[in-house]
Design brief:
47% of the residues lie in helices and 31% in strands. By secondary structure, the chain is α+β, with helices and mostly antiparallel strands. It has a single domain, classed as 2-Layer Sandwich (Pantoate--beta-alanine Ligase, Chain: A,domain 2). The chain has a 4-stranded antiparallel beta sheet, covered by helices on one side. The chain starts with 5 loop residues before the first helix and ends with a strand. 8% of the residues are buried.
Length: 117
């Protein structure tokens, strides 16, 4: 007789199921990584834009505010700024932190600026 036995078919199906499960879990993992990278990139770009906004000469109103959101363009993202003196005279540290998501993930940028005389 020619053909496959039931045992051979079952072993082949078990191997195929293992391969399919491995591929699906790998795809899910990499999609999660891509999503996380996208969110971090958006947060980093938003933080950079906030730092640039705070550096503009006409940003007196922006300097008074220490936190806010990027709504309506980016409703899930919020920002917070902190200014601190440094150990080097004549410089101050500006930290901008952007938070997002249910887990409140965050990215922080630090910039050292010469103090205005």
């Amino acid at each position: 007789m020619k053909g496959f036995t039931l045992l051979e078919v079952m072993v082949a199906l078990a191997i195929m199921a293992g391969v399919v499960l491995t591929v699906i879990s790998s795809v899910n993992y990499h999609l999660a990584l891509a999503t996380r990278d996208r969110e971090e990139t958006i947060a980093l770009l938003l933080a950079r834009s906030k730092v640039e906004e705070l550096e503009m000469p006409d940003s007196r109103d922006a300097e008074r505010k220490t936190e806010g959101t990027f709504a309506p363009e980016w409703p899930g993202y919020s920002w917070k700024t902190e200014r601190a003196a440094t150990s080097v005279p004549g410089f101050r540290q500006l930290t901008v932190t952007v938070s997002w998501g249910a887990e409140r993930r965050s990215v922080s940028l630090e910039k050292y600026q010469a103090q205005k005389q």
